[in-house]
Amino acid sequence: MNDAIQNEIIEEFDGLEWFDKYSLLISFGKKLKPMDEEFKTEDNSISGCQSKVWVRSYNKDGKLSFDLDSDAMITKGIIALVAKVVNDRYPQEILNADLYFIDKIGLKSNLSPARSNGLESIINRIKEVATNEANSNDLKN
Amino acid sequence: MKDLANDFPILEQKVYGKRLVYLDNAATTQKPNSVIDTISDYYRTDNSNIHRGAHYLSEVSSERYEEARKKVSDFIGARNSSEVTFTSGTTGSINQVARSLGPSLRGKEVLVTGVEHHSNIVPWQLAGATVNAIPMDEDCNLLIDSMEITNKTKLIAIAHVSNVLGCVNEIKEITEIAKDHDIPVLVDAAQSIQHLPLDVKDIGCDFLAFSGHKMYASTGVGVLYTSDRFSDITPAIGGGGMIDRVSLDKTTYLDPPLRFEAGTPDIAGAISISAAIDHMQKIGMDKIKKHEQEVYSYSRDRLLEMDNVTVYGNTNEMCGAISFNLDNIHHYDTGLILDKMGVAVRTGHHCAQPLMGSLGIEGTVRASFALYNTKEDVDMLIEGIEKVEMMYK
């Protein structure tokens, strides 16, 4: 996993008060390309989140990328960061990934299963996709 | 009125360096010192299982438990304390009725309102009944004249106060109509017992359910009032403490209330409800109602005067909860930012998805009040909302 991207994010959030952190997340959220409405289906949505989250994945030359969207802006900002870290990686890289930036930028409470924005569910979904891809690659080989 | 918050130690704390403004009381209320002390004193000096022991402590705890029952009975105006059963909470109470009445509900209809909590919908569905709502207008006023009772209607089960909007339903009008059709009425009083003086004889309901933890008592305990008219219904739960005689061929049950209390109940919880009633009565239910009305009306006025805020529901009488959304800002975002301001609210569908469907929304921000909230708390909420709006500009 490319730790440089995670370290860059950590640096960006370093020393910020919550107000600025959330403002930054909102600005990332606003910049994230919205998913086309036609892809916001039940299958692509993640249940158990207070805000709606949709995940689509695609494979290019064996590397995985994710389109993520949410109807809540702060959630969208968080998933924009997740996408930045995991996109364009081989499935095994994603499976091995330690997304330590979430803790370092003070969003760990958003990761707990009790927290209903379900960041954990989102990461689980991403890893699930990576697992399936890794397994199908094994079969092909 | 003296500062009623002083009796609640949890409210003294700061969160994120700010004074805690607790506006999530429809989810659960905080506990006064008297309730906390009652619970810990019970375990320090009186703890024993009830109704069974031949020893001193069992006598003491049985007595305290039965005193709690009497206290609740008087508090809700029951004719007889045998009409009061301790349960695990409102959800437990409603499920208990659904299981007891189950056979008579299967394939029939239960009438509810459009603002119900899921716990007053799902138990009836599990019992095999069809659940239909009494029509309401866009402000969430019940259209009682349009209520359709057919020969399939076997029960009317209605929230006294909406957990989302704070709308007070006209339950007395409904029980009067129900009486003409000889249909029993269950009232979900989870969101009214802590706000309004309440009398089951006056309401004329057959069942009434509420939770301890939303009325300043502990979690895991609640009450089901079952009118004497239904004293012979089949118990929903079987086990120890509720039987007359057991044999492998045939078992007979005790009369209520023990008939409906199988197993060891939450003794400390029941006693904590008694302490919570003492606390409320010391202040006075009428005073609580008046004070809360002032805070509630103030919050409504302040929210309504904001340009980019939509407030949901508008009925003659309202109390407890108020729901709103900020234009183009997700309720979850609003809740997250308010949290950082020290303002605790709840966001989402509040276990009332049919209501969200009627309103055409996914969720709301809900502020909900208790006796210790003040206009200053509302000011902090408004300040928080202004901050949210600023961040999205």
Give an overview in words:
The complex is a heterodimer of chains A (141) and B (393). Chain A has 141 residues and is mostly helical. In chain A, 50% of the residues lie in helices and 11% in strands. Chain A has six helices and two strands, in the order ααββαααα. Chain A has helices at 3-13, 18-31, 73-86, 91-96, 101-104, 119-140, and strands at 53-60, 63-70. A two-stranded antiparallel sheet of chain A has the order 1-2. The two termini of chain A are 23 Å apart. The mean pLDDT of chain A is 87. Chain B has 393 residues and is α/β, with parallel strands linked by helices. Chain B folds into two domains: 4-30 and 284-391, Aspartate Aminotransferase, domain 1 (Alpha-Beta Complex), CATH 3.90.1150.10; 35-282, Type I PLP-dependent aspartate aminotransferase-like (Major domain) (Aspartate Aminotransferase, domain 2, 3-Layer(aba) Sandwich), CATH 3.40.640. Chain B has eleven helices and 17 strands. Chain B has helices spanning 33-46, 56-75, 90-105, 122-126, 171-180, 200-203, 267-283, 285-304, 331-340, 353-359, 375-391, and strands spanning 14-15, 18-19, 21-22, 84-87, 109-113, 130-134, 153-159, 185-188, 207-211, 222-226, 243-246, 251-253, 309-312, 321-326, 343-344, 346-348, 364-368. In chain B, the strands form five sheets. Chain B has a seven-stranded mixed β-sheet, with helices on both faces. In chain B, β7, α5 (171-180) and β8 form a beta-alpha-beta unit. The radius of gyration of chain B is 22 Å and the shape is globular. The model of chain B has no long low-confidence stretch (mean pLDDT 96). Classes of the chains: A mainly alpha (141), B alpha/beta (393). Chain A binds chain B through residues 18-19, 22-23, 26, 50-52, 71-75, 116-117, and chain B through 16, 329-330, 332-333, 336-337, 340, 347-348, 362-363, 387, 391-392.
